[in-house]
Amino acid sequence: MTKNMPLPSAGMRHVTLRQLRTFEAVARLRSFTRAAQEQHVTQPTVSKQIRLLQEAVGLPLIEQIGKRISLTEAGEALYAACTHWLEGWSRFEQTVSELKGVKRGRLRIASVTTTTHFMPRVLGPFCAQYPGIDVALEVVNRDRVLERLAHNQDDLYVMGVPPDDLNIVCTPFLENHLVILAASNHPLARQRNIPLTGLAGQSFVLRERGSGTRLTVERVFRERQVSLDVRMELGSNEAVKQAVAGGLGLGILSRSTLSADPSQEGIAILDVQGFPIRRHWYLVWPRGKQLSVVAKTFLDFLQTRRDWLETSAH
Ligand code: PGA
What mean pLDDT comes out for the span 161-179? Predict the structure, then answer.
């Protein structure tokens, strides 16, 4: 060590894993309340852990102005370090479980909104088979999943449109068909083999920008040079379905959002040329990421159950 370099505070030796976990959650979520919810503790407990950590480090880490939380320079440095430490630590915990012959630990998955229609049915049997693994499923739209991927916040990511500008591994695991919908009593519901250009004058109710469904719809219409008149955009598949059934316009959604008989929901799947668009759901992770034991267990589980998945998820 250089002669005049100040020594780190002696209290640093007393920093605990719990304090670091709490700090990482506050720094990532920028909220004491949400960190407390995530960690299943009270807000005063979070505040106390952060106070003890700041005392040990000997510098402020977090600044709060009104409701806004920001990190100091030391806070930013600690946040960067924490992300690596905690990932390494959870790998270590899982290695220990593996050495003990137990599949145990937490599987963190960030999954796009549309997957709520089948992910619980996939996770149910997985959790039943591996009771020692608990799953934290974060369901957000595609843009938010990509943000989480960029910050390496989860073990695995599920989406229908993986980005082509990131260095990632993508494994298709389930078919995902995009269909065009109308109210059951819409005149187009009785027509067959409708050309896409025949929909040019129709109004559409679509998912919000930032969703994978919306991205695909816009790409398809652009590629086929058909104009798309968006009357309304809604943040959930269920809301789009209700709007379509209510006659507000045509909709485009993944087939997995509909029941086996959509006419029961007041909805018809239109027979449009080039539809359904046949796509896949992908499991995605950054190339080079060392997958945890539980993540690998989940991948193996999906690979060995492909047939079951196709029948149970649709
Ligand atoms: P979304 O994603 O739920 O964000 O629309 C669906 C998809 O990627 O196909």
Answer: 93
